[in-house]
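quick one, 142 residues, struct below
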Amino acid sequence: MKNLLRTTAIPTLGLRLIVAIIFLSEGIQKFLFPELLGAGRFAKIDFHDPAFWANFTASFEIICSLFILPGLLTRIASIPLLIIMGTAFVTTKWPMLIEKGFWPMMHEYRTDFALTILLFYLLMYGGGRWSFDLKLYGKTEQ
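---
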C-alpha cells in the first residue's frame, strides 16, 4: 500500500513541461506576431504603452519558462507567471464575466485556469525529483 501512495518524478516533470512549453510558445509568439498577440492585442485591451507591456510580458514568459523547463528556481520563476495570469484574468476575463456571464467567461478561461492551477502546484511543490532545484538544494517536497 505504501508504494501506491508514493509520488513518482514523472507527474511534476510532465507539469513543468506543459507550463514551460506553453509560456515559451506564447512569449515567442508575442514577438513574432506583434499585431495579433503582442502590442496590438495589448492595445485592444487598453494597456497604456502596449508595446512596452507586450514585450515586458513576453520576456518574462520566455525567461521564466526557460527556468521552469529544467526545474531551476522553479518556485521563483512561477511567481511572475502567476502575476501575468492574474493580470490576464483581470484585464480580459473579468470584463467578459461582467458583460457576457459566467459560462462564456469559463469557456475562454479554461486554458488560463489550468495554467494558473499548474503554476500554484509548482510554486507549492517546486521542480520535483528530476530538477536542477533538487541537485542544487538537495531536497524536494515530493
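The helical segments are 2-5, 10-32, 34-37, 39-44, 50-68, 74-100, 102-125, 132-137.
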